């Protein structure tokens, strides 16, 4: 688990990482600028940890950010919250 977590933490597009029950027990969410970004992340994981490969890849074309949180250029929260009117 430690190697996987360290590898995932190096990915700038990582939004969430969850250990869940079941045979496929790791779920990660990334924000990428282009669809080929997904393949680049999967390739990096496969190269760093042989034998670890995604069982399923789901692509959401758009995601809505949480209302009120100001994001930086990388799409991460700045910690500043603006209360909606």
Largest sheet: 2 strands, antiparallel
Task: Give the overall pLDDT as a whole number.
Answer: 82
- What is the general shape? elongated
- Which oligomeric state applies? single chain
Distance between the termini: 43 Å
How many domains? The number is 1
The proportion of strand residues reads 15-25%
The number of distinct helices, counting runs of at least 4 residues, comes to 2
Helical content stands at 10-25%
Beta strand count:
4
State the low-pLDDT regions, or none: none
Radius of gyration: 15 Å
Order of helices and strands, N to C?
HEEHEE
Structural class: alpha+beta
**Main sheet: which strands, in order across?**
1-2
Describe the structure.
- The mean pLDDT is 82.
- The chain has one domain.
- It contains two helices and four strands, in the order H-E-E-H-E-E.
- 0% of the residues are buried.
- It starts with a helix and ends with a strand.
- The longest helix has 13 residues, at 36-48.
- It has a two-stranded antiparallel sheet with strand order 1-2. A two-stranded antiparallel ribbon has the order 3-4.
- A hairpin with a 5-residue loop joins strand 3 and strand 4.
- It has 85 residues and is α+β, with helices and mostly antiparallel strands.
- The chain has helices spanning 2-9, 36-48; strands at 14-19, 26-30, 69-71, 77-81.
- The radius of gyration is 15 Å and the shape is elongated.
Quick take:
The chain is α+β, with helices and mostly antiparallel strands and 85 residues long. It has one domain (2-81). It contains 2 helices and 4 strands.
């Amino acid at each position: 688990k430690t190697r996987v977590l360290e590898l995932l933490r190096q990915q700038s597009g990582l939004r969430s990482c969850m250990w869940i029950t079941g045979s496929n027990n790791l779920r990660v969410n990334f924000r990428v600028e282009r669809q080929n970004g997904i393949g680049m992340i999967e390739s990096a994981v496969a190269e760093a940890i042989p034998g670890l490969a995604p069982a399923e890849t789901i692509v959401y074309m758009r995601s809505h950010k949480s209302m009120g949180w100001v994001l930086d250029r990388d799409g991460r929260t700045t910690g500043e919250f603006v209360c909606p009117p």
